[in-house]
Amino acid sequence: MAAMASLVQDVWLGWEPRLRGRRLAPWEEPRVRVLFHLDAGATLDDPPLARLLEALAERLEVVAWEPRGQGASAGRFGPEVLDDARRLATDGAARWGSLPLVVGGHGLGGWLALALADAPGVAGAFALAPSLAAPSPEPTSPMRTALSAAFVRPALAVPTLVVEGRERPAAEAEAVSEWLGHEPLASRLMAGGSDADALAAPWPAAVASWAESVGTGAGGRRT
Fold it and tell me: pTM for this one?
């Protein structure tokens, strides 16, 4: 019998500002936890995202969260989101027990996940259609500046995975290529069509399998 998500639980995460989260888990005991970061402007109730999280939770425990200023989370969206994400990766899910941790995200959340891949205890990171390229020649935002600073570091010691559509904007695809060129443990999968296809079958199952393999093969700290 195929595994299925048996738990979908809305939770409040952390501190001030209070952040809305959602915890999902399969029927069988999960072996890996994923901390999932949403795209800018997205909420946990968006149907494509909700389906993605359900699909990942067929074999993984998933803790997803709305950044400050999005959805029901308090506060104002800005560079502090990166600090929130690091704090969540460090101890935000510890109340549910100890599991190997993989970080993931979609869009801007994919960029966040890749930025967190060097956090203590993180076994790996994946990004679905990451928004790494500036959308226009305008000056960078404080958030983008903070993320760019986070990538000034040596090559990662953990594996990473990027899944993106073949028909995405050229600037974004080029930015991903440039980033991957500095990461010898990185892999790239191309979904047919647009970036939206990276959220649809068969990619969630493939990503879940990759995350489980990375998490269970890691010898790092469990969180």
Answer: 0.91
